[in-house]
């Protein structure tokens, strides 16, 4: 589903990624772990087409991403990749339902269909009574669930999550872990997750260990 080959990234004379290879199958949860500065977030941003590699190539659903630029790349990213970040990045002036709908509207889908799917996702994630609440009326865990629903709205091939539990307490972090597993089982949703959270890492299908810009180890359940 996602294949990356010999991915490198340089910033002037600083070599951040040094030839990374990754293959991820549909319905797989893969975590990327390692110390700060290992290159985890840089790799995730490149896999998610938010940044460009210096060298190497990435294919998502058999599409070579380096062949896409400008609007074509933005459209591909919106339709095929979902994002979850440590800080939820919800728009404060919009309700939970409106925040979830935004990527669907950007994709040009029918408004009624987008709203129906957004309601379905929010209800599935336990937020049936929070549809009209703005972010400042939601708990941290609820805000992160809204962010998960937003990431799912366009039925993406893969969700990229960068420290998704980093801003949550232990209870909400465990709930989010279980939510990822449920989404994998229910929708065959694929996740690539950068995390320092050992519990989340051990619950994944595979853990990739990064050090000094390289994948240096792999473990799996």
From TrEMBL:
Keywords for the protein's UniProt record, in alphabetical order: ATP-binding, Cell membrane, Lipoprotein, Membrane, Nucleotide-binding, Translocase, Transport
Domain ABC transporter, first and last residues per copy: 2-219
InterPro entries associated with the record: AAA+_ATPase, ABC_transporter-like_ATP-bd, ABC_transporter-like_CS, ABC_transpr_LolD-like, MacB-like_ATP-bd, P-loop_NTPase
Record bears the keyword Glycoprotein: no
Entry's Gene Ontology molecular function annotations: ATP binding; ATP hydrolysis activity; transmembrane transporter activity
Keyword S-adenosyl-L-methionine assigned: no
Entry-linked CDD domains: ABC_MJ0796_LolCDE_FtsE
Pfam families: ABC_tran (PF00005)
Gene3D superfamilies: P-loop containing nucleotide triphosphate hydrolases
GO CC annotations on file: plasma membrane
Gene Ontology BP annotations: lipoprotein localization to outer membrane; protein localization to outer membrane
The protein's name: Lipoprotein-releasing system ATP-binding protein LolD
Gene from which this protein is expressed: lolD
């Amino acid at each position: 589903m996602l294949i990356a080959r010999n991915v490198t990234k340089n910033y002037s004379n600083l070599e951040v990624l040094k030839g990374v290879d990754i293959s991820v199958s549909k319905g797989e949860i893969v975590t990327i772990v390692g110390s700060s500065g290992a290159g985890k977030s840089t790799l995730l941003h490149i896999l998610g087409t938010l940044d460009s590699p210096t060298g190497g190539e990435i294919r998502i659903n058999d599409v070579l991403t380096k062949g896409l630029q400008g609007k074509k790349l933005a459209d591909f990213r919106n339709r095929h990749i979902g994002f979850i970040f440590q800080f939820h990045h919800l728009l404060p002036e919009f309700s939970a339902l409106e925040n979830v709908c935004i990527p669907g509207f950007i994709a040009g889908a029918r408004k009624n269909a987008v709203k129906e799917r957004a309601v379905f996702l929010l209800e599935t994630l336990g937020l049936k009574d929070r549809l009209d609440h703005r972010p400042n009326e939601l708990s941290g865990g609820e805000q992160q669930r809204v962010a998960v629903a937003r990431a799912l709205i366009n039925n993406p091939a893969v969700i990229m999550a960068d420290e998704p539990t980093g801003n949550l307490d232990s209870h909400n972090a465990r709930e989010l872990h279980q939510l990822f597993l449920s989404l994998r089982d229910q929708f065959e949703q694929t996740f690539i997750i950068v995390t320092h959270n050992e519990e989340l890492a051990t619950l994944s299908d595979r853990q990739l260990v990064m050090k000094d810009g390289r994948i240096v180890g792999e473990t799996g359940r």
